[in-house]
Amino acid sequence: MSAAMAGVRLGTALQVEAHVLPSGSCASCELHQGSESKLRVSSQFSAAPISVQSSSSWGMSQKSSSCLSYASSEFWGADNVQLSSQTGNSTSCSDMAGENRRRASSIRVMSVVEKKGTPGRFYFNVTGFPFPLGPFLQRRTIRKEVEKGRIWTFEQEQALGFSSVATNTRMTVIMLKSGGLWVHAPIAPTEECIQLLKELEAPVEYIVLPTFAYEHKIFVGPFSRKFPKAQVWVAPRQWSWPINLPVQLFGIFKPKTLRDDDFSAPWADEIDQKVLSCPVGIGPYVEVAFFHKKSKTLLVTDAVIYVPEKPPEVVGKQSLLDAAKNGLAVRILSAGKEIPDDPIVDDEATRQRGWERMVLQILFLGPADLLEPQQSFATMSKKLIVSPIVKTLVFSKEPERVKDWVNRIIKDWKFKSIIPCHFSAPIPADGRDLRIAFNFLDELLPEVENKSPAFGFSLATIFSKASSFFPDADMKTLFSLDEFLVSVGAVRKTVSGKARR
Fold first, then answer.
1. N or C: which terminus of the chain carries fewer CB neighbours within 10 A?
2. Which Pfam family, just one, is annotated for this protein (predicted)?
3. CA 377/CA 368 separation, integer angstroms
4. pLDDT, tens digit, for every residue of 295-329?
5. Under a CB-based contact definition with an 8 Å cutoff, are residues 66 and 191 in contact?
């Protein structure tokens, strides 16, 4: 519906005023009586105030809450529903459910509203080094059911400082046999996020921090305070940089430590775990992988990713449009091409260009060509990969440890899907795909371990939706950064297999 202002009338009397967030985030207003009648309004891209008017002879109560996603408006319990436009050239529509029917059929209205003063998405954070983690004030949460009644993901937008670069960050929740919830990698505990979690109608029993990484650690303390009865478990060898702060200063008190193949963990009958700890420089890279046996799902933090062709639903429209502008980053990383001064038009092609530019900056920091990102984006998307940053600055420093961890995962866990903390999930992938994503490790190991792959495995590599080798031109900035960090002692030097002999 293109109405800048609309009215929904079921009779007379009750009116709710709502204003749209320009960022494209959304919330909902609900008017209901028991389980019979309900009015829910939510949207994605509206740009002006929306008025919702409703009444009937029923004693309706009013409730404000955050909405889940790009939902539609649905109306029950009325025999006359009218949607009308009152501004400019916008259109109007109406639906008469019929004179003899007491309940109107579902009506879908694509517009986004948020009630005045709704605090559901507010979360203030300006911390992070070297760049603060955004968004700084508002974080929308989207919940998705991965396996009915058993596994859910919760996603929020995660931005890099004051830039237009953003992607998603993900929390995964598993229902245990006990009827309690096991929470992996908590996200910002906004009112909306907590409400969506409570709608699962199960107590949070365990909160798990599977990594040392700041971007995930920062939310564990605030999240755990929402569920004081839950046990908090953290990956071993926690540290932070540039100041090594104890976890207590992150609000994490008396946590239990995750151990490798810990069969005494309270969830061991349902979820296995394996710890990777790599001393790569000023501090160790630590990540704990988990395997949910019933669903055959592998959970990781940053070990692998799958870049989708289209942007995640939670990434805001404005972020995509800002990334599509030919700003300073594009002018620096344009491969010497002339930069056009074309105006930004809000359409699918522009948002797609913004997404492709975001992805290349996230993966490579300084890709070869941001002006025309299509070719590099096609190379990196729609396949299981290790992020080039993690590959270059972390896994290449300790290939033996990483390969041992990957091999143990493949040998012991017959997984069919992977849920990482960023980009797409769940990813339909198995041990073969995971091994191909880590093929680059073989180039770094001694030749005695570098056995030539069988013909069948080579063929599998060709047809697999996984990859481990990336364009040299795009990797140039990362290679330079690696050399600098090695020179100042921040990370270890990458040593090839031949040099190790």
1. C
2. DUF4336
3. 11
4. 999 999 999 999 999 999 999 899 999 999 988 88
5. yes
